[in-house]
TrEMBL record:
Species annotation: Strombidium inclinatum
Stored Gene3D superfamilies: Cysteine proteinases
GO terms, molecular function: cysteine-type peptidase activity
Domain Cathepsin propeptide inhibitor: residue ranges: 20-77
Stored InterPro entries: Papain-like_cys_pep_sf, Pept_asp_AS, Pept_cys_AS, Pept_his_AS, Peptidase_C1A, Peptidase_C1A_C, Peptidase_C1A_papain-like, Prot_inhib_I29
Domain of life: Eukaryota
Matching SUPFAM superfamilies: Cysteine proteinases
Listed name of the protein: Uncharacterized protein
Pfam families: Inhibitor_I29, Peptidase_C1
């Protein structure tokens, strides 16, 4: 995988073609026509050159690298970003705020080590990130409560939570998914498997595992409150994932962010590397993206 740092260099098409052919082989890509091959090669070339330039200029930031999204157009990439917060959305009446004594918080938290996080999933070509964020939070809290880690059904949320305001693969919001599961027990992945497309609701009440009793929103722009919340269990969160640098993230701590929330992910902990305190976040684009499906994000954005 391409993830080296150093001086940027723009390569000719002839020099880039071996990299592209390796990419095609590594990620099992298949293009039906020569025109499609050339089109995807052009997209790959843009990604390759952007990676080279970013890694050369931003040695203190996360490292970018080639992944399965390197031949996607910006329009195709945007289909993955399915967070749709309603214009009239309000936080829940009860807001989770930081405790008075922050010294009681652990120095580091990682719910993967406690068995409260399922393996990384892949939303495919469906804008269902919000559903994966939601199930991840429910899976974590269910494991902490019962000791059993079940993989819950994103497809149930995609198909069945439209009355709450969600729109399946066209987008949704985690709060509305939780509202649905307050009324309807969530099934497991095994009983209601993921299809990655909009379907008719096929909910089987007899297969439901558990319901959401209640949920609470964390106070906005309050890292201490968020740290306290994730110290209790995984948290569904929203981020801005609209940049090419996020699309091509490979490893390291992301230190520069934008603030147009468009993607639902799962916060599973926090830690520290040298002087940098960071969040540990699970994505839903498969284990070949980022740090085995995860990314790390600086707790305090350097752009703020």
């Amino acid at each position: 995988k391409l993830a080296a740092t150093g001086a940027a260099a723009v390569l000719s098409d002839a020099a880039l073609e071996p990299h592209f052919l390796k990419f095609v082989a590594d990620y099992g890509k298949s293009y039906g026509t020569r025109d499609e091959f050339e089109f995807r090669f052009a997209q790959f070339t843009k990604s390759f050159n952007y990676i080279q330039e970013h890694n050369a200029k931003n040695t203190d930031d996360a490292v970018l690298g080639i992944n399965h999204l390197a031949d996607w157009t910006p329009e195709e990439y945007k289909t993955l970003l399915g967070l749709r917060i309603p214009k009239n959305a309000k936080q829940t009446e009860k807001i989770f705020s930081a405790p008075e004594n922050l010294t009681d918080l652990p120095a580091a938290v990682d719910w993967r080590d406690q068995g409260a996080v399922t393996p990384v999933k892949d939303q495919g070509y469906c804008g269902s990130c919000w559903a994966f964020s939601s199930t991840g939070a429910m899976e974590g809290r269910y494991q902490i409560m019962t000791g059993t880690l079940d993989s819950f059904s994103e497809q149930q949320l995609v198909d069945c939570s439209k009355k709450e305001g969600n729109a399946g693969c066209s987008g949704g919001w985690m709060d509305q998914a939780f509202e649905y599961v307050e009324k309807n027990a969530i099934e497991t992945e095994a009983s209601y498997p993921y299809a990655g497309t909009n379907q008719e609701c096929n909910f089987d009440q007899t297969q439901g595992v558990d319901k959401v009793v209640s949920f609470t929103d964390v106070k906005v722009n309050d890292p201490a409150a968020l740290a306290a919340a994730v110290a209790e269990g995984p948290v569904a969160v929203a981020i801005d994932a609209g940049s090419l640098s996020f699309q091509l993230y490979h490893h390291g701590i992301i230190k520069h962010c934008r603030h147009n929330l468009d993607h639902g992910v799962l916060l599973v902990g926090y830690g520290k590397e040298k002087k940098d305190e960071y969040w540990i976040v699970k994505n839903s684009w498969g284990a070949k993206w980022g740090e085995k499906g995860y990314f790390r994000l600086l707790k305090t954005d350097k752009d703020e």
